[in-house]
Design goal:
Strand order of the largest sheet: 1-2-3
Helix content: 55-70%
GO molecular function, one term: DNA binding
Strand content: 5-15%
CATH class of the largest domain: Mainly Alpha
Structural class: mainly alpha
Keywords: DNA recombination, DNA-binding, Plasmid
Protein name: Integrase
Radius of gyration: 24 Å
């Protein structure tokens, strides 16, 4: 502020300081809760490292950041085991954000050295045959959807579960997507549903995913959504038809509606639903998203159409990674060339 006062006068400096405070408030307001949680968790990891290494928390040097990376891979978890490289990468990035927020200077070169060390050590782990982390979640598929639809009980919870899974598959949902939907975000159309999905991390935008009626009524997302919402209003009142109410509600074991579902409850629900259906490998909150990309590719859908439906950037690397191949024999680039 002193620098601004010297250049522009005290009144202008005060206004500039107020603008900075407003910018900080806006940034805080638009930062998603899951990002805030990640920053907080990563800062605690950094604090544990500093306590273990007896280093000052607010001093980030090339050596301390490289040591942080090595410590995370070696023993960083609270149970004494090492983190997976992907988790270590997340904690490194978030810890740097936390350091800068607290006034510590972190040079790009020092951060780059730590990231280079992380990448090199990750290669060493692979060369040693060590695999860490859960790996990519299993993708949802049509057989799994059929099994899930058959296994859903004839209750409000069963109808909710069926609608959650079938609609989520068709717009490549992540766990936070259905948790953020309101009733008014899902509208009926003569050809199906239009789901207004809130996207973006620093600038909110909406994509309107169109979901058509399925040829098979048993796994039709439009019919499943309509049945769920009709039953919810019939059993718990028309107030749940209000556009401002949650699209997907939590339901306790006694059938009481507990409010809107959160991302964690969606993840738990998808796992429970798939386990109940006897799916060989339990699905996670990301399985529906992977499933649309993978099944869409298998069915010959255009990559750009898949990207637009799921909210990926066109030619997204992450989307291409989701396009899993079964065994590499039928879907083989060299098959039939000679």
């Amino acid at each position: 502020m002193e620098r601004w006062a010297e250049r522009h006068g005290v009144d202008a400096a005060c206004r500039l300081a107020e603008a900075e405070e407003l910018a900080d408030a806006v940034e805080k307001e638009i930062t998603p809760d899951n990002t805030v949680d990640t920053y907080a968790k990563s800062w605690r990891v950094w604090q544990r490292f500093c306590a273990d290494a007896r280093l000052p928390e607010l001093e980030a040097t090339r050596g301390s950041l490289v040591a942080f990376v090595a410590w995370m891979l070696r023993e960083g978890q609270q149970n004494g085991k090492g983190y997976a490289p992907s988790s270590a990468s997340t904690h490194l990035a978030a810890a740097v954000v936390g350091l800068r927020e607290r006034g510590a200077k972190v040079s790009g070169d020092d951060q780059g050295a730590a990231r280079a060390a992380l990448e090199g050590l990750a290669v060493k782990l692979l060369q040693a045959g060590e695999r860490r982390g859960r790996g990519q979640a299993v993708g949802g598929d049509i057989d799994g959807l059929r099994a899930i639809a058959r296994a859903c009980p004839d209750t409000l919870t069963g109808d909710r579960d069926k609608a959650l899974t079938l609609t989520g598959f068709h717009y490549a949902s992540r766990s936070q997507d259905p948790a953020g939907l309101l009733t008014g975000d899902v509208t009926l159309h003569p050809r199906g549903l239009v789901v207004a999905v809130l996207t973006g991390k620093t600038k909110h935008s909406v994509r309107n995913a169109k979901i058509r009626y399925a040829d098979d009524p048993a796994i039709c997302p439009v019919r499943a959504w309509t049945a769920y919402r009709t039953r919810l209003a019939a059993e718990h009142g028309d107030r749940w038809a209000d556009p401002s109410t949650p699209a997907f509600v939590g339901i306790d074991r006694w059938g009481h509606v507990t409010g809107g579902m959160g991302p964690d409850s969606v993840t738990r629900a998808i796992k429970r639903i798939s386990t109940r259906a006897g799916v060989p490998i339990a699905w996670t909150g990301h399985s529906l998203r992977i499933g649309l990309a993978s099944v869409g590719r298998t069915k010959g859908k255009d990559g750009i159409a898949i990207a637009d439906q799921g909210g990926w950037a066109r030619h997204s690397r992450s989307m291409l990674g989701y396009m899993q191949r079964d065994d590499g024999w039928d879907d083989n680039a060299s098959a039939g060339l000679t």
